[in-house]
Amino acid sequence: MIIYPAVDIRDGKCVRLRQGSYSDMTVYGDDPVEMALRWREAGSHFLHVVDLDGARGQGKNNRDIIGRIIEALDIPVQTGGGIRTMEDIDEVLSLGAARVILGTSAVKNPGLVDQAVSRYGSRIAVGIDAKNGLVAIEGWERTSPYTAVEFARHMEKMGVETIIYTDIAKDGMLTGPNFEAMDEMQRSVSMSVIASGGISSINDLVRLKKIGMAGAIVGKAIYTGAIDLKEALEKV
Question: What H or E segment, with its residue span, contains residue 131?
Fold first, then answer.
């Protein structure tokens, strides 16, 4: 199982949100590139980067920073947030991203997913963020009519190979993932499922690996020191 340290960017800073709330935010550093290098030095093999401003539809505020992160690292980077057109996808992949994550756009414009997968194959992932079982969109501030599992199955039929599955209620809370929901998703599709939200300990990571997750995104736990990233990478 791949462990993905998360670097979330808002207003050019490295931040973490609680339960996806932009009004409940902690700043952990003024330089996301420096933070990315810190997680690489701990031994990471892949990085997860999110443009929180882009996710809310506030332009390409942080795309230049994402480009600098990709340039600074010698490991692959997957990134999402505000990627809503084919031009966005082309631009971010041209920066050197290994994989782009479509979220709101995948829900509102499935034709974009079809086009993107046709052009880029496995470099296209879909983020499925669940709020009370329903897929959330637009920076988690609205919900769609789709359940997480039914939407995942729809994406699988379109040829998507990787999904990032987040339980918003757990995100940033350090209370442990929603293991039941993760297990259900893992059993419902044959895609690679990357777990996100609530991971608070190395034991959580071990349990997710046993469920069969292809990866796990760790955010707040490594920023607060609840998880020592180097130790986690050695043990999981």
Answer: strand 124-131
